[in-house]
Amino acid sequence: MNVERWLMRQEAQWLELEQLLNRAETKGIGALSAADICRLSQLYRLVSADLARAKTRRLGSHLVNYLQGLTLRSYSQVYQGRQPEDWRKVLWFFQRGFPDVVQQTWPQTAVAVGVFMVALAMGWWYTWADRQFMELVVPPNIISLVEDQGKLWMGSIVGIEPLASSSIMTNNISVAVATLAGGIFGGLGTLYILWTNGIHIGAIAAFVAQNDLSYPFWAFVSPHGALELPAIFLAGAAGLLLGQGLLFPRRYRRFSALKRNGTLAAQLMFGVVPLLVIAGIIEGFWSPSPLIPNSLKYLSGLGLFLALLFYLAWPLERSPTRGRE
């Protein structure tokens, strides 16, 4: 197959489909004529076949991601009449749509994880090397409690679990939304939030290690952190998508790139919020409980993390858009 000739021949159909989808998504499917709807369905099948061909021929991740985006958007328009109930759309999203978009945007998530981990390592290193840095980053009340009384601060949650849980949820969701919104500044705001959070957690982890409290500290963190940290990384990916759309539109016009990436970012956030709600419940009720052995907290954290990885890494072929390629 002559790839360049094939791309030139098919690109006109992809652009036609993209134009129809933009109209349907902006004004509703009812704004299309019967002929347009038939044409959209026809182009959806053609693009699905093109996606399968692009994967088989290994024509590059950029092209595959572009065609995946078109097929997913087309599927939601062509088959929305078969799922009139809102709850079915929500169920479909969490069964297939969310893992799909996470896998499409893994490069942005990898960047978010990398920035956070580098910052965490620096926070850890400088806390061990420089007490002034530690006092600058770690809150004074935590320093006093750990050094003067030799205990962690999580005990303050016990007895006020419902209030603490709702407060934790609100705070974490606010951080995730701010991380997303930081993408409007070319991704710099997103990177700043990831960096500062990494520095903060690294410094606290080093500080409790200096005072021989690492085991109970990580026992507290692991159950809710197994969901909370990945959720923040995904929010970081959403913010970086916005920044990428603004600064690096590639083959798209800037507005089209921002709209496309904004759709992916919104889908990521639809999945991030429930993760943070669940993490907030765990952090309020399970993580600080003195009745639960630390070993069980570690096991629960590991189990949740592996379950989340399995869910998000489920093969893309399970998506209905791929079942018809």
TrEMBL record:
Transmembrane spans: 106-126, 173-194, 227-248, 268-286, 298-316
InterPro entries from the UniProt entry: SpoIIM-like (IPR002798)
Keyword Transmembrane helix included in the entry's annotation: yes
Highest taxon, organism lineage: Bacteria
Keywords for this protein: Membrane, Transmembrane, Transmembrane helix
Name of the protein described by the UniProt record: Stage II sporulation protein M
Species whose genome carries this gene: Parathermosynechococcus lividus PCC 6715
